[in-house]
Amino acid sequence: MLTCAIIDDDEINRLTLEHYVELTPNLKLVASLADGIAGLTFFQEGNHVDMLFLDIEMPHLSGLELLRVLTDPPEVIITTARQDFAVDAFELSVTDYLVKPFDFARFTQAVQRVQQRRPVAAPTAAPAADIPTSADLFVKVNSRMVRVNFDEVLYVEALSDYVNIVTLKHKYIVYTTLKALENRLSPFPNYARVHRSYLLNTQHIESIEDNTANLHGGHFVPIGKSYQDSFYKSLQRI
């Protein structure tokens, strides 16, 4: 059972989401709030939920502004009529981005993504690490939001205010910083920062020689001196 809250200034949208939550057996609605200020008060009073359905455009305090001031936000599913806030939202590590009007099937898909990011009980009944089962994330390439499977990414290279995401078949130039993308990929243990300009997928390493990682497809990534000790220690634990 996952607890959830709704923050949306449109009553019809709140009622729709409340109905969708009621139709979902493993969701329990804790709060349905009409604006960002009420949402901020809810969390400042010490309330916690597993999942937050959050509108963006609201008076006094927008959904994105609320996310920026929360110190420990839950899994967030954005629900908005605007498509042009997607990049800002994903920079804040939201789980999904639903554009109104959306149907129950799309709502269910977003809930399933939250469930995939939740810890899963191991056979010994001990809590498992929070490792996602899917590495699909959205990135903005020019004017398009593109789904990229980060299991297939070889490495990410910093290019000033952009990054170059390299797979065996494609290269994606994305307007973001390497640090921001590193934060988004932090749940995935196979990613390692190996250089001030490179983020590496260790699943694609064929060999390491002279502090250079040789990757599938004939790609090479340098391992910076300040990163070598921690990186090599992490490889020994794999």
From TrEMBL:
Cross-referenced Pfam families: LytTR (PF04397), Response_reg (PF00072)
GO MF assignments: DNA binding
HTH LytTR-type domain location: 137-237
UniProt keyword annotations, A-Z: DNA-binding, Phosphoprotein
4-aspartylphosphate modifications at: D55
InterPro entries linked to this entry: CheY-like_superfamily (IPR011006), LytR-like (IPR046947), LytTR_DNA-bd_dom (IPR007492), Sig_transdc_resp-reg_receiver (IPR001789)
Span of domain Response regulatory: 3-115
Name recorded for this polypeptide: DNA-binding response regulator
Organism: Hymenobacter frigidus
Phylogenetic lineage: Bacteria, Pseudomonadati, Bacteroidota, Cytophagia, Cytophagales
